[in-house]
Amino acid sequence: MHADIVVLPGDGIGPEIVAATLPVLEAVASRYGHAFSFAEHDIGGVAIDRHGEPLPAATLEAARRADAVLLGAVGGPKWSDPNAKVRPEQGLLAIRKALGLFANLRPVRPHAAALGASPIKSELLQGVDIMVVRELTGGIYFGDKTRSETEATDLCRYSVVEIERVVRSAAALARARRGHLTSVDKANVLETSRLWRDVTTRVMRDEFPDVTLEHQLVDSMAMHLLSKPRAYDVIVTENMFGDILTDEASMLAGSLGLLASASLGSGKVGIYEPIHGSAPDIAGKGIANPYATILSAAMLLRHSLGLEAEAAAVEAAVSSALDAKVFTADLAAAGQGVDTRTAAQAVVDRLA
Ligand code: NAD
Ligand code: IPM
Ligand code: MN
Questions:
Q1: Which of 13, 166, 240, 299 sits at a 20 to 30 Å CA gap from 176?
Q2: Whole-model pTM over 0.90
Q3: Residue 12: which residues within 8 A CB-CB, separation 6 or more?
């Protein structure tokens, strides 16, 4: 098949991890007889510097026309002045919203060879396989904001339709997995969470009676996630809770540099990006872990291009590289670790 992939490297380690991932997609194309074309565009801080805005119209237009978007990361100290008029992160939020990407799939599957990198006891991690579905275009991220000399506000707002559609996405995934859905909210305090709980209960009762539903409050969920991670199958939650819980969950896998994501809507185009950020502390050193971005490319193959065998081959190649202890510094023993390109090449070699 032929596919047009828009590539948005962004800031910090973004260009490094994306440059390491494109050869993996090239290797898939040549092994399976596909043709992928890559068109690079600006987003985030680099777009502010070049065009004065974090999401230039040309970037959004290209993304709309593409089959899929591969994104690195945005943001960094250069653009982080709290009084700045424009911010890199606004570009990322705007493209998710504009493309209607309401369901952000973040799989958490600790790999046997990397268990030693996790601060959690290995026996708790065996067999952990969680899919977090984070609502991505609503909640406190997108409500009205105000700021005066003396106070500031961020409005958290959810509509029934916004909750229904993301719960349906999560429940469909649960149905194809182990048949269990955990909905995370703060219904003991927040009105939006009480709506979330009501709607979720109704959708599951009426449309997914075969999927078991459990409600969890977000604070105790943060604890259970580390103390009994095997108890979870699919977790669905609102935008900010999902953001925070998945960075926490990355410690089950051993590094933020291992967690991939797919941002999906009702159309074909999705954005595929690691869950981590631009990692300013290691940017420019060539040592970032590329596996999260490579695994995001696998999700791109699966969800936007329908290439399941190819996606599984990329995942198997990453697993095999991890089995061979091809570790970047975040996974390796102190003072050790291969560079970004070496890790990515190990994946390419296994696909050849
Ligand atoms: P971060 O995810 O960038 O980094 C947190 C820690 O994890 C750092 O120590 C970093 O070195 C490490 N890390 C992250 N990815 C890694 C990788 N692939 N390999 C090895 N180590 C890795 O979070 P932060 O420092 O809080 O944020 C930095 C900037 O990134 C901010 O501007 C933030 O807004 C932005 N950000 C962007 C995205 C995105 O583009 N999707 C996501 C999160 C944060
Ligand atoms: C993520 C990031 C973004 C988010 C920021 C950079 C806007 O943390 O993709 O997880 O909060 O969604
Ligand atoms: Mn985040």
A1: 240
A2: yes
A3: 73, 75, 76, 277, 278, 279, 280, 283
